[in-house]
Amino acid sequence: MTKYIFVTGGVTSSLGKGIISASLAKLLQERSYKVTIQKLDPYINIDPGTLNPYEHGECYVTEDGAETDLDLGHYERFLNTPTSQENNVTTGRIYQTVINKEREGAYLGKTVQVIPHITDEIKRRVMLLGKKGEFDIVITEVGGTVGDIESLPYLEALRQLRRELGVENCLNVHLTLIPYLSAAKELKTKPTQHSVKELLQAGIQPDILVCRTEKPLNKELKQKLALFCNVDQKSVIEAIDAKTIYDVPLLMLKEKLDIRVLKKLKLKTSQNVDLTAWKEFLGRLKNPTHEINIGLIGKYNELPDAYKSIYESFVHSGASNECKVNVLPIHSERLESDDIESYFKSLDGILVAPGFGERGIEGKIRAIKYVRENKMPFFGICLGMQCAVVEFARNVLKMNKAASTEVNAKTNYPVIDLMEEQKSIKTKGGTMRLGSYKCKLEKGSLAYKAYGRSEISERHRHRFEFNNKYIEDFKSAGMNMSGINPITELVEIIELRDHPFFLGVQFHPELKSTVERPHPLFVAFVKATLKNKLNEKA
Ligand code: GLN
């Protein structure tokens, strides 16, 4: 039977429920349990696909094309297993299902209410993953903070599940903050006591407390928390601030979070935890022999979460090259007027980020012209690739005012254009080209060398694409289409010869980079950039 763990958060938001959930899952996975993690988000949007990255950070896309919360990225990066549509559910989605059923007449004249109809739908969505028969343990992270109005139906569903399944099958891990008051030189337990009271009010006695803290928790403090919050002392787990999120599984192992969880779920703890590969990764991450500076040219740079998976991909690929990658965000709009040279002096390579709309486009195009001409390594993702195509059209093929029709619908040279199947689409939510598609690589190309094979599959999230009408013009001028979708013939990868590294991809490689499987294109980009830097110095 599948066991369920709910991770709730107390006191403040941003305590890192996603990382704690992923770390716990990692340890359980290392003990040979099949684990998946689900995120419940208490907002009314059906999914985060329509949310501005400034509001909510990056929108993470799964293999099966769900637009999801960025925490799913952490789950995949830690567990090295894919998530799916079922792994992220919002309040909007829950209500949509219930309201659709009501319209169908499925409730047979009953008054439709939060309890039981909304809570039943929440429970169904949680159990759906368990019923697949693929997982021993489902960890469900409840978004928001205990005490929020929006979280109440989720807590009520959790209360009911604990009653129905029994506490040994349905556990609550409560993540909370123990603030340090420097004036008093003391760690304070009161906010945690209050947040546990909130949970008790919802009918839930937490089983395990995971306490975020800047300073170690001493025995007395753990005793106090145990007494006031009614948990056993061994179940008060310290989660001290870590240098990198990738340290957290080891910290949780040391604190025996996995053992506590397994004991409470009445599961075997005998298997050994083998984190050798993980530790090797950390060793390389912390002891780099080289260093490079990559400019991340984007427009949401104030909020690093908007490019979360890109930053993490550089952590993975940097470690695999034993190279520290300093990612320096550069606002594309600044490059439109400012002296572009000054920005590039300290850089060894650039990545032009994905994005939507007109703002900052010309800055991205100027940056690409600079790195193409000055032979600085370039990696373009989605919009970044599209900008490289536009730049090449304008400056090499001399197609005056060539553009993507996303920016200029009237251009004489629509080198990037709306995909055929997108032309009739009017609604915004969930209607892009989403999820995983196959791509065939040209033998001998940069991409082929990076992947080491000729068939790959990568995740997408876009409406526009390379306009195949121009394919021969580009090829004859030196831009190579090295990756093509074998069914639709859409161009997926472009690259330039006679350049240390110039590659653009229509898909999102950053979504598939994990600790144990750093993405081959990021690995190749870091490697080429480092090589180029060392050559220039020599
Ligand atoms: N705006 C572009 C498109 O829709 C690129 C999207 C992206 O970078 N994810 O095609």
Helix/strand layout:
Elements: E1 3-9, H1 17-30, E2 35-41, H2 53-56, E3 60-61, E4 67-68, H3 71-79, E5 88-90, H4 91-104, H5 114-131, E6 137-142, H6 152-165, E7 170-177, E8 180-181, E9 186-187, H7 190-201, E10 208-213, H8 219-229, E11 236-240, H9 248-254, H10 257-264, H11 276-286, E12 290-298, H12 308-320, E13 323-331, H13 334-337, H14 340-344, E14 349-352, H15 361-373, E15 378-381, H16 383-395, E16 403-404, E17 414-418, E18 433-441, H17 446-451, E19 455-462, E20 464-466, H18 471-476, E21 479-484, E22 491-496, E23 502-505, H19 520-537
Parallel strand pairs: 1-6, 1-7, 2-5, 2-6, 7-10, 10-11, 12-13, 12-14, 14-15, 15-23, 16-17
Antiparallel strand pairs: 3-4, 8-9, 17-20, 18-19, 18-21, 21-22, 22-23
Helix pairs in contact: 1-3, 1-9, 4-5, 5-6, 11-12, 12-19, 15-16
The structure holds glutamine (GLN).
Describe the structure.
There is one protein chain. The chain has a 9-stranded mixed beta sheet, with helices on both faces. The protein has a 7-stranded parallel beta sheet with strand order 5-2-6-1-7-10-11, sandwiched between helices. The N and C termini lie far apart (62 Å). Helix 1 (17-30) runs parallel beside helix 3. Strand 10, helix 8 and strand 11 form a beta-alpha-beta unit. It is an alpha/beta fold and 538 residues long. The model has no long low-confidence stretch (mean pLDDT 95). Glutamine is lined by residues 354-356, 382-383, 406, 461-464.
